[in-house]
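agent> Task received from the user: take the single chain below, predict its 3D structure, and emit structure tokens. No templates, no multimer pairing.
agent> Plan: (1) validate residues, (2) run structure prediction, (3) serialize to tokens, (4) report one or two observations.
agent> Step 1 OK, no nonstandard residues flagged.
tool_call: predict_structure(input=
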Amino acid sequence: MQPSDPDDDKAGTSLMNLSAIIGRIEEAVDTETTSIRTDTRFDIKASNARKSRYLYELNKAISSLRGAVLGEEQRAGIVRLRDKLAHNEAVIRAHLSAVAEVAALMQDAIQRAEADGTYSADEFGREASPA
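)
tool_result: status=success, residues=131
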């Protein structure tokens, strides 16, 4: 029995770490995608922080590969992750569009309420004419 090559062991460990990180990112993206649609109290800021941390971990894992060949599991994971991120982006864009639309409606309602004459500059500028 030949002793295993330490470089092969490191590459194998790095590939397993990469698979685990991809799995965590997929889970975070799936949770965010679902929650944006269903949970009005979803903390998108915390979700973004989590995704940023995972991206950092992913970058470290990829740089630790040092030329190791990705296995089928890792390639399939990257493809799945890319597809999930594209779907997540579409959901976030729709959410932001809806938020912008609601903000525009509220702004319009405020402007109409202010323009009804109750608080107009003309009302305050008129002086009572002598009778």
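agent> Step 4: summary for the user.
The helical segments are 6-38, 44-64, 72-114, 121-125.
agent> Done.
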